[in-house]
Amino acid sequence: MILYFSGTGNSLYVAKDIATAQKEEIISISKEMNLNKEVYDYNLKDDEKIIFIFPIYAWAPPKMVLDFISKLKLNNYKGNYISAVATCGKNIGNTMELLNEKLNKNGLNLDSGFSVVMPTNYIILGDVFTREKNNEIIEASKPVLKNINKIISNLEKGKFNVEKGNMPKVLTSVINPLFNKFAIGTKKFYVTGDCIGCKICEKVCNNNCIKVDKTPVWGESCSQCLACINYCPKTAIQYGKGTVKKGRYTNSYIKSEEMYR
């Protein structure tokens, strides 16, 4: 079972690669969470693996991923192998420790964890790379994914091949809560006159907080995945003044329709 969250395709790209190698089913965490269930329960097969795949937002998993895990119930769990893969621009802080802490509260244990560097989409703080650079990064991820699949296939425990960065505890336990409190609002999103009302932003929103009536209107719930900005075919969606002259990024291996929620 591959449980994934993806904003602009990087984590879905990784999820598809690992699902193929492990012969496991892919399940979208955002699609599940938008069902608004009290409990998300799944019946496990005896040898079924559970692999979480998600991007890093301010040195931790997206809040939706952690909320999902708090409501997760794995029926027939008998020490099934659990792993996690975090896609990131550079490093992930204490993400795996935080994830394991959340799993432990449900009687589950994280057996392995990995970080994979992928192209950035967070144009609020920086610009995207060139297409050539993005392709180089994706190509460099392929041998990393091959090694990850080897470790998971062998059910190796205690393997945590991650890049934490400097002061990982501070990054995850201090900066991430500040990000979740102050940086995931929707007030700064707006649309220019270039909008054609195609509704792609509504379809790719992880939180189902965008509704299009000629032009998009944002609700309050947001993950800051920036799918709406990056998938807009007319570059009509902006966030404050900082994104106006910046490029956009979506994973070239993933079709936009695959990102519809």
Provide the fold topology.
Layout: E1 2-4, H1 10-22, E2 26-28, H2 29-33, E3 40-43, E4 50-55, H3 63-70, E5 72-75, E6 82-88, H4 95-104, E7 112-117, H5 131-153, E8 159-161, H6 168-182, E9 189-191, H7 200-204, E10 210-213, E11 215-218, H8 227-231, E12 237-239
Parallel strand pairs: 1-2, 1-4, 3-5, 4-6, 6-7, 7-8
Antiparallel strand pairs: 9-12, 10-11
Helix pairs in contact: 1-5
GO molecular function: iron-sulfur cluster binding; metal ion binding
Domain 4Fe-4S ferredoxin-type: 187-215, 220-242
InterPro entries: 4Fe4S_Fe-S-bd (IPR017896), 4Fe4S_Fe_S_CS (IPR017900), EFR1-like (IPR047964), Flavodoxin_dom (IPR026816), Flavoprotein-like_sf (IPR029039)
Summarize the structure.
Keywords: Iron, Iron-sulfur, Metal-binding. With about 260 residues, this protein is an alpha/beta fold.
Task: Explain what this protein looks like in three dimensions.
- The chain is of the alpha/beta class.
- It has two domains: 2-178, Rossmann fold (3-Layer(aba) Sandwich); 185-259, Alpha-Beta Plaits (2-Layer Sandwich).
- Helices cover 32% and strands 19% of the residues.
- It is built from eight helices and twelve strands.
- It has helices at residues 10-22, 29-33, 63-70, 95-104, 131-153, 168-182, 200-204, 227-231; strands at 2-4, 26-28, 40-43, 50-55, 72-75, 82-88, 112-117, 159-161, 189-191, 210-213, 215-218, 237-239.
- It has a six-stranded parallel sheet with strand order 2-1-4-6-7-8. A two-stranded parallel ribbon has the order 3-5. A two-stranded antiparallel ribbon has the order 9-12.
- A hairpin with a 1-residue loop joins β10 and β11 (215-218).
- α1 packs parallel to α5 (131-153).
- The radius of gyration is 18 Å and the shape is globular.
- The protein starts with a strand and ends in a 22-residue tail after the last strand.
- The mean pLDDT is 97.
- Keywords: Iron, Iron-sulfur, Metal-binding.
- One of its GO terms (molecular function) is metal ion binding.
- InterPro entries: 4Fe4S_Fe-S-bd (IPR017896), 4Fe4S_Fe_S_CS (IPR017900), EFR1-like (IPR047964), Flavodoxin_dom (IPR026816), Flavoprotein-like_sf (IPR029039).
